[in-house]
Amino acid sequence: MSRIMFLLVLGLCTFAGASSEAQESRCADCHFANPQADPDPNHLQDWDRSPHGRNRVGCDGCHKGNAATTESFLAHQGVLTSRNPSSPVHRNNLPRTCGACHTGAFVAFQKSRHLGLLGEGNADGPTCSTCHGSVGAELLSPRRLETQCESCHGADDVFPLPEVAFQGRLLLEEVVLVRELLGQATGLIARVEDDTRKREFEEALQQAEVPLTEAVQAAHAFVFDQMKERLTTARERSIVLLNALANPE
Ligand code: HEC
Ligand code: HEC
Ligand code: HEC
Ligand code: HEC
Ligand code: HEC
User: Fold this and answer.
1) If residue 48 lies in a helix (H) or strand (E), which one and from where to where?
2) Would you say residue 101 has pLDDT above 50?
3) With left for phi above 0 and alpha for psi between -120 and 50, is residue 84 left, alpha or beta?
4) Atom 18 of ligand 2 has which residue's CA nearest to it?
5) Which bound ligand lies closest to the C-alpha atom of 105?
6) Residue range 8-33, pLDDT digits in tens
7) Closest CA to 75 of 84, 83, 64
8) Measuring from atom 26 of ligand 1, which residue has the nearest CA?
9) Backbone angles phi, psi at 158, to 5 degrees
10) 136, 160, 191, 228 - which has most CB atoms within 10 Å?
11) Domain segments of the chain: what residues?
12) Whole-angstrom Cα distance, residue 33 to residue 13?
């Protein structure tokens, strides 16, 4: 009885939402009605709240299958359990699955020894979900990143390179700092009244945001030289912009 009510409400919401895109994805609808299908009770909620759920990256974005049908057999064609080495969500295949949409991170990750480990079927290396969770919802804070690297590269561990964990943390702290500078600049730009000047500032803001995004992507090589170069550029441009905003004329 309660399930029928739930489906009715769900149906009403779908129609009320009236987005044809939302109606094309039947996977989530049916899985929310059958939560026992997922061994991890948080997976659906995590997805719902994640940037993926909010930006219409459906279940099929990672799992494949046919999202246009309510017929279970047809829907699951091509869907394989993550334990199957051919599954798009097997840990060894995640870089390619996620990388289909996140090219920048994937290209950098291809330079990393970590990808080589996955290719060899070695379970000691990290994959995308190690740091972002299985629905890609999570972004690590600098301290949590350090802990994550240390779980494999810590001084008392069998893997070498104990210094990389601290390096990674410092660089991510700088990412956070540059983001704060850009946040301040955004606030100041909103108050600029002259339209021409405002547009110039907005362009300068973009010029500083691009290398910051590139820095985060390049970080996925885990050898940080290119990231450092992009981050320095982003910081310099942010400071020039903030100075210009603070000193009109
Ligand atoms: C009509 C309901 C329904 C639809 C539509 C549906 N699923 Fe499922 N799904 C289930 C149920 C129920 C299970 C549990 C296993 C079973 O009974 O087949 C399941 C199992 C799964 C599994 C686990 C497979 C395994 O072998 O461990 C995945 C992954 C999955 N579905 C993803 C999807 C994706 C992706 C879509 C859309 C392309 C989708 N599902 C559409 C109901 C549905
Ligand atoms: C961003 C990628 C991504 C999206 C989007 C995603 N999943 Fe998953 N899902 C995974 C990964 C990776 C696993 C493997 C297990 C793990 O790492 O926890 C998984 C595991 C599962 C499982 C357990 C069976 C298995 O193969 O391990 C089910 C069932 C499932 N997902 C259903 C769904 C449904 C339903 C949706 C949409 C509401 C969805 N997933 C959205 C990545 C994703
Ligand atoms: C079908 C395309 C697609 C796939 C596959 C996909 N993503 Fe995403 N991802 C997106 C979109 C769209 C967004 C939201 C817009 C944005 O932030 O770029 C997003 C956002 C993210 C974010 C948040 C970025 C931020 O700044 O908040 C992370 C992290 C992420 N994805 C990681 C992953 C991981 C890890 C996987 C694989 C497990 C994955 N994605 C699979 C399309 C995809
Ligand atoms: C060892 C940890 C780690 C692994 C493994 C990892 N990432 Fe990341 N990723 C990070 C960190 C740290 C950030 C930056 C977080 C921030 O922006 O605050 C990040 C950021 C991202 C973002 C957001 C980028 C943006 O432009 O805002 C995406 C998308 C992403 N990663 C995708 C991936 C994909 C795809 C993989 C697998 C190929 C992967 N990551 C593997 C740690 C990792
Ligand atoms: C799940 C375990 C794991 C995590 C988490 C992890 N690594 Fe690794 N990493 C490895 C292993 C295993 C190797 C290979 C060591 C070897 O070749 O002997 C490696 C190799 C490396 C290398 C050497 C690459 C090269 O090209 O020589 C660097 C640098 C590195 N990791 C940095 C990092 C950083 C930075 C983090 C955190 C952001 C991190 N790793 C997180 C397991 C991990």
Assistant:
1) helix 43-49
2) yes
3) beta
4) 134
5) 4
6) 334 333 333 334 444 457 999 999 99
7) 64
8) 81
9) -75, -25
10) 136
11) 2-75, 139-246
12) 14
User: Which residue of 14, 27, 73 sits with most ligand 1 atoms within 8 Å of its CB, as the best mutation to test the pocket?
Assistant: 27
User: In the structure encoding, which two tokens stand for residue 74, read together?
Assistant: 């047809």
Closest by CA to 97, choosing from 133, 63, 68, is: 63
Q: Which atom of ligand 4 is nearest to the CA of 126?
A: 5
Instruction: For tokens 């993926």, name the residue.
Output: 52
- Residue 148's nearest CA partner among 124, 162, 130, 170 is 130
Which protein residue has the closest C-alpha to ligand 5 atom 25?
Answer: 113
> Would you say the pTM of this structure is higher than 0.85?
yes
Which among 5, 60, 74 has a CA at the least distance from the CA of 28? 60
The per-residue pLDDT for 162 is: 87
CA dihedral 92, 96, 97, 101 (to 10 degrees): 150
Q: Provide the phi-psi class of 223: left if phi over 0, else alpha when psi is between -120 and 50, else beta.
A: beta
Distance from the alpha carbon of residue 180 to the mean position of ligand 2, in angstroms: 33
Concatenate the DSSP letters of all residues of 154-215 into one string.
Answer: STTSSSS-TTHHHHHHHHHHHHHHHHHHHHHHHHHHHT---HHHHHHHHHHHHHHHHHHHHH
Structure confidence by residue, pLDDT tens digits, 160-195: 888 999 999 999 999 999 999 999 999 999 999 999
Cα 75 to averaged position of ligand 1 atoms, centre (Å): 7
